[in-house]
Amino acid sequence: MRTLQVDLGERSYPIYIGGGLLAKAGSYFEDHQLSKKSPVLIVTDDHVAPLYLKQVEESLENSGYRTVSKVVKAGEKSKSLGVFEAVMTTAIEGGLDRRSVVVALGGGVVGDLAGFVAASYMRGVTFVQMPTTILAHDSSVGGKVAVNHHLAKNMIGAFHQPEMVLYDVETLQSLPEREVRAGLAEMVKHGLIWDAEFADWCRDHTSKLLALDADTLVYGLTKGCSIKAQVVSDDERELGLRAILNLGHTLGHALEAIGGYGEFLHGEAISIGMAAAALIAVNRGADRSLYEETVALLSGFGLPTVMPKHLDEEQIIGAMMHDKKFKEQKLVFILPLSIGKVEIVSDVTVEEVRRAIRDLKEEEQHV
Ligand SMILES: NC(=O)c1ccc[n+]([C@@H]2O[C@H](COP(=O)([O-])OP(=O)(O)OC[C@H]3O[C@@H](n4cnc5c(N)ncnc54)[C@H](O)[C@@H]3O)[C@@H](O)[C@H]2O)c1
Ligand SMILES: O=C(O)C(=O)C[C@@H](O)[C@H](O)[C@H](O)COP(=O)(O)O
Ligand SMILES: [Zn+2]
């Protein structure tokens, strides 16, 4: 078991990464002195519940905690105000009080949804993340919690840091292949924004990562979490540096929104977004090899890097204008300078984005 720390100055919290952690959830709650007198709400989805809910409930109950569970439908559409309200109803009917804990057991969807419930219920209760996807090495750390609006992704949310992250990597073995690939997009992103050696390592370990080799996965996830923890520790509220975690997201979020939160998985959308960011950088003078290396790395994982031809350029641009990354009439893009290094650029024009969209429609997908 490895422990990383997210250090936020006045407080810090641990990320525990290892096998068999869900079965020990009760002891982790006791170690963190979480109240046994107040009910614990476990939020999960209908893919994860049949696999892992019982062991978490049993572990907590064996340690003397009373649990209430809410199972939502799996998928991005559950990050909605409607589902948020349904989870709130369960919390109120279940008698949660101010000392209660909300647990997110699942991927980033459940993490963001349950986290927003924890941030809002009685103006904020304790939150525990129990991530079960590869992608959630990113989403479970850093405290961004939100639901979507049909016009824009993650539009309604808060910053609400977890008390701890209990990352049981054994759960990853049951992930569907498409989710494995999508989750690895955020791992690659951490290499691309912060650490060229780690990006190289991801490329060199592509097959082992895709095959869910346990030691390789733990190394990659620990490295990814530690990069995320360093960035968040430096800038919790995205006043500056933290924006780099948005590589690929300016365009990626627009793709998710216009796809009705069903056409693209988050990792797939940001993979296309990272290819687009590299292309914009090349069009601004960077060496073309930067784009080619980015695309080779992502497509090695079977991730999409071309713009599907049926997508309407105007719709993509319109959706980008609703995103949080459109500020003071400017589009904020994270552009690569080299592999492992990015810059935050706020003067990318709509014309540059249009050109990248058109060029990416003409590219061939390399898989
Ligand atoms: N808050 C943040 O900082 C942050 C960071 C990155 C992404 N996100 C958000 O995370 C979401 C994507 O997260 P995700 O990719 O984990 O999606 P997800 O939560 O939808 O999980 C992916 C799929 O895998 C299933 N699943 C989860 N764990 C499983 C397991 N162990 N075995 C079998 N099936 C399992 C789920 O039911 C779902 O169908 C997006 O909404 C994105 O915006 C948030
Ligand atoms: O933690 C962050 O900061 C990130 O940007 C991580 C992203 O991978 C994540 O998708 C995040 O939810 C995007 O944030 P948003 O503020 O652009 O909605
Ligand atoms: Zn993301």
UniProtKB/TrEMBL annotation:
CDD domains: DHQS. It catalyses: 7-phospho-2-dehydro-3-deoxy-D-arabino-heptonate = 3-dehydroquinate + phosphate. GO terms for biological process: amino acid biosynthetic process; aromatic amino acid family biosynthetic process; chorismate biosynthetic process. InterPro entries: Dehydroquinate_synthase, DHQ_synth_AroB, DHQ_synth_fam, DHQS/DOIS_N, DHQS_C. NAD(+) binds at residues 108-112, 132-133, 144, 153. One of its GO terms (cellular component) is cytoplasm. Belongs to the sugar phosphate cyclases superfamily. Dehydroquinate synthase family. This is 3-dehydroquinate synthase.
